[in-house]
Every structure is written in structure tokens, then in C-alpha cells.
Amino acid sequence: MAWVWRLLFIFMMLWTVCQSHLHFAPSSRETSAAAAASNKTVKTGIAAEVAGYTDVAKRIIDLAVFGAARNRSYTRLADFTDTIGTRVSGSNNLDMGIKYMYNAMVKDGLDVHLEPVKIPHWVRGKESAQMLLPRTKSLAVLGLGSSVGTPPEGIKAEVLVVQSFEELKQRASEATGKIVVFNQPFVSYGKTVAYRAFGASEAAKVGAVATLIRSITPFSINSPHTGWQNYQDGVRRIPTACITVEDAELMWRIAQRGQQIVVQLNMEAKTLPDVGSFNTVAEIRGWQHPNQVVVLSGHLDSWDVGQGAMDDGGGAMISWEALSLIKDLGLHPRRTLRTILWTAEEQGGVGAQQYFSLHKGNMSNFDLVMESDLGTFTPVALQFTGSDAARKVMEEVVKLLAPINVTKLEDNGEGTDISPWMKVGVPGASLHTADSRYFWFHHSEGDTMSVQDPGDMDLCSAAWAVVAYVVADLQDMLPR
Ligand SMILES: *[C@@H]1O[C@H](CO)[C@@H](O)[C@H](O)[C@H]1NC(C)=O
Ligand SMILES: *[C@@H]1O[C@H](CO)[C@@H](O)[C@H](O)[C@H]1NC(C)=O
Ligand SMILES: *[C@@H]1O[C@H](CO)[C@@H](O)[C@H](O)[C@H]1NC(C)=O
Ligand SMILES: *[C@@H]1O[C@H](CO)[C@@H](O)[C@H](O)[C@H]1NC(C)=O
Ligand SMILES: [Zn+2]
Fold it and tell me: What residue range is the signal peptide (predicted)?
């Protein structure tokens, strides 16, 4: 940077300060800051107020992406998941994971506490599946969460392969006594997951003895993907597991040739009584309105395969990292920043539901609820649910993320854990990342640290920290 520009920059900064009486410190990106500063003098109201955070946003971004905190959220996640491993609801590992995070956040200097929750305790046990006819082939399976097991000798039955619920209805008379294999094509996670969630009860209604469901993924290297499933009340509970895309397609092709398929399925799965667990809460207290909160969150539990690094170790870590960044810079927001690491999200947002019922009396004090549970890949946009007036504010806030190229505000903030708050009108935000590979790894042995990238996690942490800090520090809460 030539000294002439430095001088010009300093001159413009002084001029701006005189004009607006807003104070901000010079940054390292002189020209763009100067241009933005000259723009700021003509901005009014909320745009001007938010633009006043341009500099602090840059300091947060610099620390996370280029400074001393570089790679920190990745390193923390690697240490956590390599040490603890998977953290399925009800497991000893989940308990250890909660203790680990509690201690780590206390050591980091945050204000940490645990809130008790009762959570489901389903155990997989041993499981296996084998095609016996028309030839012997072992099938990779993962039982689905909440599934019952088979009798000890297993279930040996002929297979009916269908591609949809419609086809199952049309061929209902063929289903009695059979193992129904669903070979539904992948459309989108949101649509196709219905087969995992409701396949067992739909098959049981037409007399099936078990179901094997094609994994909900657009891509597979013979990987089964587990997940939660729901038995419908009053319908017989039959064992249900997912199989790979490859094996589902194989059995479909064999069935199309009119050949008989027989499968042997053995599952020890069972549900034990609920156990005690905790939502883990860490805070930086607001100096002016400590009772008003901005929530940052991810879930600490995972499935019992892989490492639970992507789902949702990454979301949990950036929600901690955001507070670390703000604390390291000595920033004190007006309102409280509250990081919540939910328990038992995979069982249907159990920890978050309980949190909502305990705290909904203070609903009017919840400024913004944020959740990252779609992977911590390269961030591309912030997703937001809230009133038009709140959206206007958030549109200004995301402009502060220009240095990391995340300036888009999209519709539909999402997350199982924040949805109860959004339903009652609390503004909600989530991180849209370059997640095209998310469902390749989701709920499978492939969900490991190898999916994570330190640079991407830095960008996610920076975005998370800037949005949370600025919203928590504005004069007013987001309009409802
Ligand atoms: C200044 O404001 C104008 C009009 O709103 C906008 O097009 C331009 O990108 C802004 N420049 C900077 C550096 O913020
Ligand atoms: C951060 O991680 C990247 C990728 O592993 C590595 O190349 C870089 O040296 C690391 N930087 C620091 C400061 O640790
Ligand atoms: C609700 O907010 C009040 C302060 O306004 C606080 O004392 C109380 O602990 C909060 N209750 C819950 C359940 O968060
Ligand atoms: C933002 O985009 C610009 C232009 O494509 C690129 O040079 C820069 O490296 C990007 N910044 C980050 C943090 O990705
Ligand atoms: Zn998740």
C-alpha cells in the first residue's frame, strides 16, 4: 500500500468521524474501508447503525481466518471427536462428550452450565443381513433408531421390492409375511426421508414382517445410512434397517427378472428406559440487557457410526468458537450471547423441545436463535426466518460478511432445534454452506474428520460470530 493512499485514508477517516460522530478504529483494508466509510455518512437509521460495525466485523474475521484463531475450531473438533468418538443418545460416549465440552468451555473462560433432560436410550446390538436366494450375498445394514430387534433366530423371509408407497399399496396382497425392500429413488432429503421415517409402519399395515430401506443419499460406495424412524401408534412394530443404494438396486433388478429373493435378517436392537442427559450452555453475559439473548447452537449427540464430525460436531464447534473469538477480542455485547449444545437432536430434537418448554415463558427476551446443522463447509449465505422488518436489519448485517464473500440473505432459517422458537415468531437463522456432499456422509461410517476442512470451519466461525455479536449489540432487538 503506497503511503499516499494511507494518508488519504487517514484524512477520510478523520473527516467521517467529524461528520458522523461515529467512532471506529482504522483497519488493515484501507481502500474498501474508506469507500464504505464515505458511504456510511449518507446512510441513515439501521443501515448506518449496522455499518458502524464494519470494523469490528473485520477484526473478528481477521482473527478467525488469518490470525491466532486460524484452524482452531477444526483442531478443537478433531481433538473432541478423536477422543470421544460417536455420541448416540443414551450412550456413555454422549455423557463423556458433554463432560468434555463442559470442561473445555469452562477452561476457555466462558460462563457454562448444564440443563438436565431425559432422553431415549436405543441400542443397536449386533445386526446382519444376508441374501440367501437367488444367491448368497451379505448385505451391509444399519438398523434404524427406535427399531425393534428380530427374534434371536432372526427373520428369514421372501422379499417384495417396491419403488414407492403407491406401489406398496397396489401390491399390498403380495406383502403378507414378506420382508419389504423399499428401492425409492432419491429426490431430496426432505422428500425421500419419508421412506426411512414411515416405511416400517406402512409395510406392517399390509402384513410385512420386516423392512429394508434404501439409504437416503444421492451417492453411495456401498454405505448404509441410519437415522430415526417412527412407529405409528396401533400398528405392529416390525424390525427396520437401511441397506445400501447398490443392494436395493440389485434386489430390484433381480425381482424385475421374476426371480425369488430370500433374505435372512438378524437384529438385536432394543429400547431401554430413558436416561438423564444435559443441554450444555455457555454464555457471554450482556452488559446492558443480560436477560435478552442471542442463541448460537449445534447438537452434541450424533449417530453411533463414523465420528459425528460433520453431523453435528462442526455446528457445535463453531457455536463455541464464535464465543471464543468475541471473548478473545475483549468484546462485550449489550445482550447475552448463549451457545447451546443440544442433546438428543437425532431422536427428534428431544433436548431442544425440553429447553423450549422450560424457557418459553421468556420468549419475548429471545432476540435471535441460530443453528448450524447442515455441515460446516464453505459458507455461501445466511438463511433467515423473521418479519420483513427483521429481514431489513439482517440484510444489513450480512453485508458485514463481505470480506468472506457471504453477503446473501436467504429465506427459511432452519434447524430441528430452533424450530419451536421460530414457530412462535422468534427470528431464526442458519448457515447455508456448500453442502452438496452433506448427504453422502450423513448418518454413515463416512461422517469423520476427513470430511472437515479447517479453512471452511474458520469462515463458518467468523460468519457465526459476526452475526451473533452484531445482533446482540444493536440498540434494539430484532423486530418481530
Ligand atoms: C456505496 O453505496 C452504493 C449505493 O448504495 C453502493 O452501490 C456501493 O457498492 C457502496 N460502496 C461501498 C464501498 O460500500
Ligand atoms: C491450518 O491448516 C492448514 C490445512 O491443514 C495448514 O496448511 C496451515 O498450515 C494451518 N495453519 C495454521 C496457522 O495452523
Ligand atoms: C427468565 O428471565 C428472567 C429474567 O428476566 C430470569 O430471572 C429467569 O431465570 C428466566 N427464566 C428462564 C427459565 O430462563
Ligand atoms: C472472496 O472472493 C474474492 C474474489 O473472488 C477472492 O479473491 C477472495 O479470496 C475470497 N475471500 C475468501 C475469504 O474466500
Ligand atoms: Zn444433525
Answer: 1-20
